[in-house]
Amino acid sequence: MAEKTILVCDVCGEPAGQRVTIRIGRRALVKDLCDPHLAELTDGTRLAKRGRPRAVGAAAGRRKSTPAASDRQTRGRKRPRKREQPAA
Ligand SMILES: [Zn+2]
Q1: Mean pLDDT across the stretch 50-71?
Q2: How far is the CA of 73 from the centre of ligand 1 (A)?
Q3: Which residues make Cβ contacts (< 8 Å) with residue 18, sequence separation at least 6?
Q4: Residue 7 · residue 16 · CB < 8 Å
Q5: This model's pTM is above 0.70
Q6: Residue 5 Cα, ligand 1 centroid: separation in angstroms?
Q7: How far apart are CA 11 and CA 31, in angstroms?
Q8: Which of 4, 5, 74, 86 is deepest in the core (most CB within 10 A)?
Q9: Could you give the dihedral angle defined by the CA atoms of residues 48, 53, 55 and 59, in that order, rounded to the nearest 10 degrees?
Q10: C-alpha 46 to ligand 1 mean position (Å)
């Protein structure tokens, strides 16, 4: 017999309309919510801006200090050198 999964609101136990994923830092949490509780959760929220991964944002924040100076430093020094050694 086929089983049917019924989402139940994690707050009140009523049939849930949505499963939401909440991201807090690196943790992603999942919660099933009925319509009233979903509305409660999304009240005061805004759309996340897409197209800006976290890594890029962090790098951009670091770069903010003195871009010209750091460019000069990395020019002749920190370039990764290809020093590949034969595996065998
Ligand atoms: Zn609910």
Answers
A1: 56
A2: 56
A3: 7, 32, 33, 35, 38
A4: yes
A5: no
A6: 17
A7: 9
A8: 74
A9: -80
A10: 21
16 half-sphere exposure, CB direction, 13 A CA radius? 18
Nearest-angstrom CA–CA distance, 25 and 62: 19
Residue 32 · residue 7 · CB < 8 Å: yes
Instruction: State the distance from the centre of ligand 1 to the C-alpha of 37, rounded, in angstroms.
Output: 5
β-pair partners for 80 = none
User: 15 Cβ partners below 8 Å, 6+ apart?
Assistant: 6, 7, 8, 9, 34
Instruction: Tell how far the Cα of 24 is from the centroid of ligand 1, in angstroms.
Output: 21
Q: Are 41 and 16 in contact (CB under 8 A)?
A: no
